């Protein structure tokens, strides 16, 4: 078997066999096929795409290259949740105690943020004392006793994907449906849960900018999961604006806590309820409708709040943060308001630019080596469709003396467009499609 022949076959629109795909991936990981040949193959895939079968074979080859995380030591049903990444997406922090209040176990391995999207691990570490580096014994013990555990990924899951992704990143072959879906699902299937709920973002702050592309991606990932015998539901959700009212680590934790206490209602609250109800439904514990109703009850009777406190305490965090978040969390007291200079309606928000603005303040990483400042970020007061008048506050920047706010403010101002007429209602819709 020669890499050259496999590349030519795909370049000319042919279908690579399971053996050919396995050969390319395994030999590349072993260092026996050079970068330039895999880059050529990836570019051929980028332009000619893959069939459903090829996509599944690519996923499984990358999955088999590393470890799997066996969750059988955790009692009860385990449903995983994955988001394709967005701005202000702190859903895991609120969603985990919500579904745990129904009796479903949430045992997640999460990552750190890079670029305009934030990472769950970084956000949780904004809670004083919260530990995400857990031993296997600690991970299973907390999951069984508290119903919720979230740790940083330590297992060597799908190492082939890491190597392939690094090459895709430097050869402009990231945004291709088969390559994205295989990359995500090789890692998700490595964690042996009973099912997966996928939150596929679409819009200005997502990898996929159009609804059509995002639905296609959702269908591709659902297809891979089903071929693997895994229960799955995918929601295609709006990322044409930041999710909720906050962007930045401590600020997002604050909003997540306010949500589980029933203190605020917004698009973030709605998405947490939707994802939670679909997770419970997928587990078979109760129907989607019943789960949504029960979770809302548990928010208002304080059950979700108490589970969050116990979870935070079990991972070394200060549980008092749930009762007094603004006192416990490190939130900068240096602020600058972004004020409207015209009357009208918010018709466009470039969510990616808002994320970059937050990163410029120090809330995110431009490179893996950057150190995050958990105290900085952005609080948003005006979202898509909202009316705004001259002199009204659109957002507040929380900044540090070291970085200031000028560059971030400039980027934030560029992300907002104000016009005389309201945007089309489709622009503010939260869930575009559900794929099963």
From TrEMBL:
Ranges annotated as spanning the membrane: none
Listed InterPro entries: Glycosyl_Trfase_fam3, Glycosyl_Trfase_fam3_N_dom, Glycosyl_Trfase_fam3_N_dom_sf, Nuc_phospho_transferase, PYNP-like_C_sf, PYNP_C, Pyrmidine_PPas_bac/euk, Pyrmidine_PPase_CS
GO CC annotations, alphabetized: cytosol
Any one biological process term the GO annotation gives: pyrimidine nucleoside metabolic process
The Pyrimidine nucleoside phosphorylase C-terminal domain, residue ranges: 345-419
Keywords linked to the UniProt accession: Glycosyltransferase, Transferase
Gene Ontology terms for molecular function: 1,4-alpha-oligoglucan phosphorylase activity; thymidine phosphorylase activity
A Pfam family hit: PYNP_C
Family: Belongs to the thymidine/pyrimidine-nucleoside phosphorylase family.
Known partners and oligomeric status: Homodimer.
Protein name per its UniProtKB record: Pyrimidine-nucleoside phosphorylase
Annotated organism of origin: Oceanotoga teriensis
